[in-house]
Amino acid sequence: VRAGVFEARLLAPLPAQSDEEEEELSTNESSVVLRFSLTGGGVADRCRFLTGGDAEVAIWHRLWQRHGDDNPDWLSYDVLQTPHHCSWRSLSFDSWRDLGEDAEVDEDARSALSQTRKGAVIVASSKPIKDDDDNPPHHRAKREYLDIVDGDDDRFFCTDEHRDDEGLTLEFEVKASGIVRKLAKAAALAAPALGISATAAHARQHG
Q: What SS3 string covers the chain?
């Protein structure tokens, strides 16, 4: 779908190919997966945003099986909203509760979620992520997403950990140079006095 500065590609849900797949595709496996493309500063396709609702591992596995060879770019992004609030179940068929650190990531699902453009950021819409048994969010999933952005803590955000005292939400702006994180209100008010911009130190540019 294309409309002016906005374009969207519907990637899922995918139709089941068998009775076995029909049974496998539970409610969370039929979530809508969309890849948006936005214009910034008059530059087309400046920001790609990939969101998958509560889609779990089976759908990401199937998406990579379906598009990984011929159309991996359909899954590329500048901003990824982690599926299912940074759930481990979006990255693995294995039970963390049963296997712990022996649980394995599904490589196809991880590949589907790893198609970063230069400087891409990953956002978990979740409560603070702790090293405990909660899922979602899950600390092992966070580790995988951090690895996807080369271990750069400045490129992984948990929404509940990035609110200012007034509860203002995490925001990014799409500019001609790329995506830029807006500073929290207090920092923005202080920025002019410090002689700095009230946005992130640098734009997330594409290569």
A: CEECCEEEEEEECCCCCCHHHHHHCCHHHHCCEEEEEEEECCEEEEEEEEECCCCCHHHHHHHHHHHCCCCHHHHCEEEEECHHHCCHHHCCCCCHHHHHHHCCCCHHHHHHCCCEEEEEEEEECCCCCCCCCCCCCCHHHHHHHHHHCCCCHHHEEEHHHCCCCCCCCCCEEEECCEEEEECCHHHHHHHHHHCCCCECCCCECCC
Tokens 């982690």, residue? 82
**C-alpha neighbours within 13 Å on the C-beta side of residue 195:** 0
> What would the pLDDT profile of 2-30 be if each residue is shown by its tens digit?
777 889 999 998 776 655 665 665 555 67
Cα separation, 56 vs 82, in Å, equals 11
| Domain chopping of the chain, boundaries | 2-167
Strand partners, 89: none
If 0-12 CB within 10 Å is exposed, 13-18 middle and 19+ buried, where does residue 112 land? buried
In tens, the pLDDT along 165-202 reads 556 678 889 988 888 887 655 444 333 333 333 334 33
Pull the structure tokens for residue 54: 């509560």
